[in-house]
TrEMBL record:
The gene is pgm. Gene3D superfamilies: Alpha-D-Glucose-1,6-Bisphosphate, subunit A, domain 3, Alpha-D-phosphohexomutase, C-terminal domain. Its cofactor is Mg(2+). Residues 14-152, 185-286, 295-407 form the Alpha-D-phosphohexomutase alpha/beta/alpha domain. Belongs to the phosphohexose mutase family. Keywords: Isomerase, Magnesium, Metal-binding, Phosphoprotein. This is phosphoglucomutase (alpha-D-glucose-1,6-bisphosphate-dependent). GO terms for biological process: carbohydrate metabolic process. It comes from the Bacteria. It catalyses: alpha-D-glucose 1-phosphate = alpha-D-glucose 6-phosphate. GO terms for cellular component: cytosol.
Amino acid sequence: MDVKIKPVTPFDGQKPGTSGLRKKTRVFMEPGYLEAFVQSIFNAIGGCEGKTLIVGGDGRFFNAEAIQTILRMAAANGAARCIVGQGGLLSTPAASNLIRQRGTDGGLILSASHNPGGIDEDFGLKYNISNGGPAPESVTAAIFDQTKTLSDYKTLEAPDLDLTALGEGKLGGMVVEIVDPVTDYAALMETLFDFDAIRALLTSGFTMKFDAMHAVTGPYAKTILEGTLGAPAGTVLNGEPSVDFGKGHPDPNPIWAKPLVDMVMAADGPDFAAASDGDGDRNMILGKGVYVTPSDSLAVLAANAHLAPGYARGLAGVARSMPTSRAADRVAEKLGIDAYETPTGWKFFGNLLDAGKATLCGEESAGTGSDHVREKDGLWAVLLWLNVLAVRKMSVAEILMDHWKTYGRDYYSRHDYEAVDAGVANAIMDDLKAIETLPEGIEKIDSFSYTDPVDGSVSENQGMRVYFDGGARAVMRLSGTGTEGATIRLYLEQYTPADGDLGIETQEALTPLVRAIDALTGLKTRSGRDGPDVMT
Ligand code: VG1
Ligand code: CO
């Protein structure tokens, strides 16, 4: 085997963010850039000698080339085996599942998730540990440390491998096993849900659409929904993965998945619709005439999960990221189970899931998941919703109203100010932190700090929380997944009890909060914007 040691000068800024390293594709394509980051991962995990790794990605531009580079480097670093999704494809939850099912040491997932793909768009890479979850902060910090001092990387002089044929091949001393990306994941779903009940629903005249947004879930959704569950052909929209996601944003929210939203809002629209993102870990849930906010979706699923076989035993606890609305906490309280509030990013749920403290987890950013893997899981959320709909025999709108009439409603929206000058964004955050005298109507302002209840690790500065008199809350934090300037995220939440007005239009219900935050921070003036770029 012809191992080459190649010198490399450290690159600035290879610091993993909320979910791995995300940069412009052209940055990842700079000579040595990807290699430096991959070698830093390998060094940080104590080398690759004898290890087995899962490798796959969302199929975006540069996915195929990057996988070849990673495989050569894994072989040169002494890995025993790499298990790769056919064609280089693996959804993030499917990769997490394979890491667990195959008992591997970890995996490398190539994705920039919901960010657009293409040579002038975004690329990303993250490392997941042996529990199947994103590397925790201790590991990402070690990776970042390595990137600062790296002097060389190891690779192999070898031609590209054919990733299209299933089965085993060799790259130097390393076995490369190409697996179908869907099979194991689909089998896992079948253990969790009542497929017979869902099949009966989907063949009863109930109509649904699933928008794969030209991203990785197309093959998964076609196999499971149209194949196993008998939904008619054409249920899955935009089901062919493409390197640039059909030039769209593969982001399942009312802005980027507007055609789907328009469809369910029409009188002749489907009973149920859903979408997933670039790498298949996010979900958007819609019913005829309604959009279910991700925070509400988590709460509804927590209240109804026991209706699916995989959760019939009940839930151990529910965890949500801090900016996610407190709707799930109300369900946990009623169920008499623990509710956890973690920083943004799925890596913070890993310990709670491993320790059996939480069964369901969710984020306001369209991420929902459970202890079946260690990532959020878009199709899983869709199947759980379908299972609940099949059992309760109610529409999505009825289930939502019934939920609010039981628990009250947390009006909720996130406002994003994208590509803001980083200096301005940081100053807005710093000034908010420095406020000493609370203006009238504000009860408390604090900076969220999290102590992991399992390993005691502390994560500080995870976002500013503003609590208003009367129970409303606003959260402000800077995005850790962007690739241009800073994105300010403003999360707004107003609770109305079960006997209050449950039918107000969301943005209208939140207008007073928006005004109060603007008065407090000068957000619009200072960012030079009339309003947010995106509201979800
Ligand atoms: C965003 C979301 C966060 C999510 C993360 C990764 O992070 O807010 O909830 O975990 O993306 O999701 P940030 O730091 O930009 O707010 V994905 O589907 O992009 O891997
Ligand atoms: Co994603």
